[in-house]
Amino acid sequence: MSSTATLVQAASAVPYSLLFSLTIYFALFGGIALFFRPLLVGIGRALYLTVCPRPSKSALKSKSA
Q1: Angle, nearest 10°, between helix axes 37-51 and 16-35?
Q2: Inside any domain, residue 40
Q3: What's the burial of 47, exposed, middle or buried (CB within 10 Å: 0-12/13-18/19+)?
Q4: pLDDT by residue for the chain (65 residues), tens digit each?
């Protein structure tokens, strides 16, 4: 059996309603992520600073001197 025939049979086995609903869900998720991007970036920066805090000014002065 050729690879084209195998691909056509595999594609015909996928229910189109499932494919359509997954496409809609991904589009909605992408739109929500773009809308809330500033909030999500801020949360990411706060989490990063929680894990790796910035050194204080006195620590920076003693390091440079």
Answers
A1: 70
A2: yes
A3: exposed
A4: 688 888 778 777 778 888 899 999 999 999 999 999 999 999 999 999 999 888 888 877 887 76
Residue 44 is encoded by which pair of tokens? 């990411």
Q: Which domain holds residue 33?
A: 22-54
Are the beta carbons of 63 and 55 closer than 8 angstroms?
A: yes
10 in a domain, yes or no? no
> Whole-angstrom Cα distance, residue 24 to residue 17?
11
Count of domains for the chain:
1
pTM: 0.52
